[in-house]
Design a protein that fits this description.
This protein is of the alpha+beta class and about 300 residues long. Helices cover about 15% and strands about 35% of the residues. It has a single domain (about 5-295), classed as Jelly Rolls, CATH 2.60.120. Bound molecules: 2-acetamido-2-deoxy-beta-D-glucopyranose (NAG). 2-acetamido-2-deoxy-beta-D-glucopyranose (NAG) binds next to loops.
Length: about 300
């Protein structure tokens, strides 16, 4: 059993030390009501609106989970959500926030939060699908308790790279390695999705810990609903969104992380990473080609 309090304390101290020197940070998210950018996608009666939709609660009970999606499709941009995950005994409960194209060989960028028994740490699993192919899981513990307060989970997606952020700290990059023969999401618009459901066949300790329905309903809370993306619903819009240099996220500063951001990423990888497909020798005797460019090996 890990000493969670110690982990969170060390995490907070180290993060605060590094907060002074920052480079190309994403723009500050603009909080808007749920209805501005999102609609329910299933079991709408399991979404509770608070203060006119400035925040929402997703409810999972024995009958159903629920989910929502963005109204628009986007090609590149900055997307973030402030979330407070299911507290207490959340074993087997999964909360996801992701972008996905609605195509056959789909692109997808995932945050998946895997619940746990009371006092045991959540796992944040990330994955990237390009042209229908995923199998790029990374798993980390967080440096705070994600059930105690709202934290920001965001993506910057441009032609050069995907960056996953947790509270302004990069936790993962996936660079455009098209020149190395790796598909990159560059021409399929994506929508944002979020859902809360039960997956106790795999989520917690590989499926050993089952959901305890005596604790239902399980509730995950959302706020902020920030989207600053390039709307791409028509071929003309796709064309515009693909034109280089028009948007802030496509400026030179966002072509790569700066030194300070790489330092934070190394900190996450060194202290909090529990699985990285790039170093899974059983699965990939030689690391996938993007791994060295992403500095994962
Ligand atoms: C749950 O807690 C156990 C024990 O600390 C840990 O091994 C596991 O990684 C945690 N997270 C999940 C989602 O299984």
């Amino acid at each position: 059993m890990m000493d969670l309090k110690k982990l969170y304390l060390i995490g907070t101290i180290l993060l605060n030390l590094s907060i002074l020197a920052v480079g190309a940070q994403p723009r500050k998210p603009v909080d808007v009501p749920f209805q501005r950018n999102y609609v329910p996608s299933w079991s709408a009666d399991h979404i509770k609106y608070i203060k006119g939709g400035s925040s929402v609660d997703l409810v999972l009970d024995k009958i159903s989970g629920t989910g929502f999606q963005s109204k628009n499709s986007y090609l590149f941009g900055h997307f973030s959500m402030r979330m407070k995950l299911v507290g207490g005994d959340s074993a087997g409960v999964v909360t996801a926030f992701y972008l996905s194209s609605q195509t056959n060989e789909h692109d997808e960028i995932d945050f998946e939060f895997l619940g746990n028994r009371t006092g045991q740490p959540y796992i944040l699993q990330t994955n990237v699908f390009t042209g229908g192919k995923g199998d790029r899981e990374q798993r980390i513990y967080l440096w705070f308790d994600p059930t105690k307060g709202f934290h920001d989970y965001g993506i910057i997606w441009n032609m050069d790279m995907l960056t996953f952020f947790v509270d302004n700290s990069p936790i993962r990059v996936f660079k455009n390695s098209k020149d190395l023969g790796v598909k990159y999401p560059f021409n399929q618009p994506m929508k944002l999705y979020s859902s809360l459901w039960e997956a106790d066949d795999w989520a917690t300790r590989g499926g050993l810990e089952k959901t305890n329905w005596a604790n239902a309903p399980f509730i995950a809370s959302y706020t902020s609903f920030h989207i600053d993306g390039c709307v791409a619903s028509t071929p003309q819009e796709v064309q515009v969104c693909s034109t280089r240099g028009l948007k802030w996220w496509d400026q030179p500063a966002f072509k790569d992380l700066d030194g300070e951001q790489y330092r934070r990423l190394r900190w996450v990888r060194g202290k909090f990473t529990i699985y990285n497909y790039c170093s899974d020798k059983a699965r990939y005797p030689t690391p996938p080609i993007e791994c060295s460019r992403d500095r994962d090996v």
